[in-house]
Amino acid sequence: MNIPSAIFVCSAPDLSACPDESLPEFAFIGRSNVGKSSLLNTLAGVERLARVSPTPGFTKLINFFSMGKTWRLVDLPGYGYAEGSRKHVSQFNHAAAQYIKRRPNLCCTFLLIDSGLEPQPIDLEFVQWLASNALPFVIVFTKTDRGTAESVAANIAAFKKEIAGWFEQLPEIYQCSSATGHGRTELLGVISKIVDAGPAVEAPAPASVPLPPEIEPPFRIQVRAGKTEEKIERTKKQLKGARPW
Fold it and tell me: Is 141 buried (19+), middle (13-18) or exposed (0-12) by CB count in 10 A?
């Protein structure tokens, strides 16, 4: 896929502030510090299109970029670590969840997973949420250049094993490295195929066995404020009744 231009369109705090729905959109989301911004720059072929920050949770708005004026790349707030108050962190995750569930021209969500880590509960919970809502997505393992081929393969295999029982057939899975450019052609190929075909990809078919109860993001969020760190764990009592928003 040739991208003649990559232009920032706007940032939106919530679904109502998103731009018009005239172009197909492809959203990228993942645990904070997964390498999302670097990957977006690699895909667009523009070094500083999405701002790369050493601070986890830097992206706080839904950011839209026009790719050749034919489709949009959407940078969603990450989940996990984030700077700010508990209230604001909740709003960021809520906005991303509403965008993924309700945006009519969203064709596919690319869920980014750090290939250097064993399966993380928060990533598994996000897969559960996507599956329980029958949302179309693919999984992309990032930073494959940072570990040995054996460790990367082992982590990916472990992740597949964790989610295998939730689907009749696993979602499409890709590997990438922003440092080497590995995986760029494959990911752009996924987007190109969908743009050319028109309709969005189908959601992975869930398994016949019951999925865990639907969980709405944010799942578990750690808020950093200066030198203090607070871990917020949802208990059954907190989850009972109305939604946590």
Answer: buried
